[in-house]
């Protein structure tokens, strides 16, 4: 376990490798700001690496509704000995457009939003925003949009109140109430359509949307448009040691998982990578970890191998599996050290964080890994010279949180939370350490290659 800065334990050559690895990570962050974009990028990467959606293939994948990806590498041992599973999530806190979003007031056109996941609303005003997503038109045609990422694109913004006038409306309120959810409306345009008396700006916007994309106002009803920060991933710090970007919870784990998985050749145990959706709102819905899509994928795998594809077999495989719930954790914030219990918190730059249990209020809603399994992970990481640390999410009763771990634990598999420490988590510009990102990759890679539970390699 690392109880000092991990940088001290790495050579100049190591640091070069760490920095190089993170260049790919930054590209991923910029190209995959939404769960749909991440799923597409992951799928395309898998295809490039020789994965196939024909389940008879040894390396295969399934995309569920464009938002979740399951990928599988056949190992040497029989499936009934269980799988090495790592799951990360590809959704991130954001603002979703409402289904009837567009309105005009005081000569401005705005879009109403409904926030998704745990955000601090004050962080989303007065920053450049981009609009990503899909619109399904009345005839079923799908329009994919991404506005605000190119230098030549416009961006959007949520207007904040000037300090001169905000005393009663904001400053004297509690921070959590100063910016109301309904006030998170995105500034979208301001030129009225010529010769129109009423709602000229709104009509001008609608005409523009129709001319450019063939969209009419009712098409917003069948759209999923997500408002995300418009800025790109950047190096942070004069020594370039950190990365600032939107969506690092949980792309720090999703990208490292994808890379580690694709670099796993001919493993002993079969390997399963899951890139899931809806973690930020409780893993609900048919693309969240609580859905049965995982079983469907495993039925497909079994059929592809000409094995009996029934529920009993799948349940036995999952029962024997070993898993990592790959999700980020909050390291000690230098200016708010009080919210952590420093003896058990994780630190930026000390490597991947192993979290035995999550939950809140006396481990409520927790997944709590068994000591035996923590021991296996510990031995594995130590043997492979992984820089790792332990971390719990904040002091007792300061808040807390959960991950997808408990939704896989129901199958009876061993599972533990491991992931990258992220400062300013859930903000539009989260910060990671390049060293931690790289150690996350290394940890996932050795996990996929490993035989845990004292099993002998065939
Ligand atoms: Mn997360
Ligand atoms: Mn989160």
What does this structure look like?
The protein has 458 residues and is an alpha+beta fold. The protein folds into 2 domains: 291 residues, Aminopeptidase (3-Layer(aba) Sandwich), CATH 3.40.630.10; 136 residues, Roll (Aminopeptidase i, Domain 2). The chain has an 8-stranded mixed β-sheet, sandwiched between helices. Helix 1 crosses helix 11. The two termini are 30 Å apart. The C terminus is likely disordered. Bound molecules: manganese (II) ion (2 copies). The site of one manganese (II) ion has 3 residues, from loops.
* Strand fraction: 15-25%
- Spatial strand sequence of the major β-sheet: 1-2-12-3-13-16-14-15
Main sheet?
8 strands, mixed
Q: CATH top level of the largest domain? A: Alpha Beta
**First and last CA, distance:** 30 Å
The helix-strand sequence is HHEEEEEEEHHEHEEEHEHHEEHEHEEEH
How many runs of DSSP E, i.e. beta strands?
Answer: 18
Helical proportion, percent range? 25-40%
Structural class: alpha+beta
Residue stretches low in confidence (pLDDT < 50, at least 5 long) are 454-458
Index terms:
18 strands, eight-stranded mixed sheet, disordered C terminus, alpha+beta, Aminopeptidase i, Domain 2, Aminopeptidase, 458 residues, binds manganese (II) ion, 2 domains, globular, six-stranded antiparallel sheet, single chain
């Amino acid at each position: 376990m690392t109880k000092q800065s991990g940088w001290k334990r790495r050579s100049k050559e190591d640091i070069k490798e760490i920095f190089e690895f993170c260049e790919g990570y930054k590209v991923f962050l910029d190209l995959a700001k939404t769960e749909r974009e991440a799923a597409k990028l992951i799928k395309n990467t898998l295809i490039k690496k020789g994965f196939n959606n024909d389940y008879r293939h040894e390396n295969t994948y399934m995309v569920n509704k464009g938002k979740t990806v399951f990928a599988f590498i056949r190992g040497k041992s029989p499936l009934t000995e269980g799988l090495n599973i790592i799951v990360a999530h590809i959704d991130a806190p954001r603002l979703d457009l409402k289904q009837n979003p567009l309105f005009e007031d005081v000569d401005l056109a705005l879009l109403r939003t409904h926030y998704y996941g745990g955000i601090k609303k004050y962080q989303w005003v007065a920053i450049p925003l981009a609009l990503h997503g899909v619109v399904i038109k009345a005839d079923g045609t799908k329009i994919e949009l991404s506005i605000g990422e190119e230098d030549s694109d416009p961006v959007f913004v949520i207007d904040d109140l000037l300090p001169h006038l905000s005393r009663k409306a904001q400053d004297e309120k509690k921070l959590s109430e100063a910016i109301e959810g309904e006030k998170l409306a995105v500034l979208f345009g301001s030129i009225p359509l010529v010769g129109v008396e009423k709602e000229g700006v709104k009509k001008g916007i609608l005409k523009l949307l129709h001319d450019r994309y063939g969209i009419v106002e009712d098409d917003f009803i069948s759209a999923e448009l997500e408002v995300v920060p418009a800025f790109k991933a950047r190096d942070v710090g004069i020594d370039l040691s950190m990365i600032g970007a939107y969506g690092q919870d949980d792309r720090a784990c999703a990208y490292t998982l994808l890379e580690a998985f694709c670099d796993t050749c001919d493993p002993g145990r079969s390997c399963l990578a899951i890139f899931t959706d809806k973690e930020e709102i409780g893993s609900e819905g048919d693309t969240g970890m609580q859905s049965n899509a995982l079983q469907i994928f495993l039925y497909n795998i079994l059929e592809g191998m000409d094995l009996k594809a029934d529920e009993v077999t799948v349940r036995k495989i999952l029962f024997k599996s070993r898993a990592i719930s790959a999700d980020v954790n909050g390291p000690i914030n230098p200016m708010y050290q009080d919210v952590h219990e420093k003896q058990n918190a994780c630190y930026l730059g000390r490597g991947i964080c192993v979290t035995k249990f999550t939950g809140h209020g006396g481990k409520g809603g927790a997944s709590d890994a068994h000591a035996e399994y923590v021991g296996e992970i510990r031995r594995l990481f130590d043997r492979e010279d992984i820089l790792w640390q332990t971390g719990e999410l904040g002091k007792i009763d300061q808040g807390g949180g959960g991950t997808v771990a408990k939704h896989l634990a129901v199958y009876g598999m061993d599972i533990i939370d491991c992931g990258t420490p992220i400062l300013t988590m859930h903000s539009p510009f989260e910060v990671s350490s390049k060293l931690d990102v790289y150690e996350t990759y290394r940890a996932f890679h050795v996990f996929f290659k490993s035989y845990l539970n004292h099993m002998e390699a065939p």
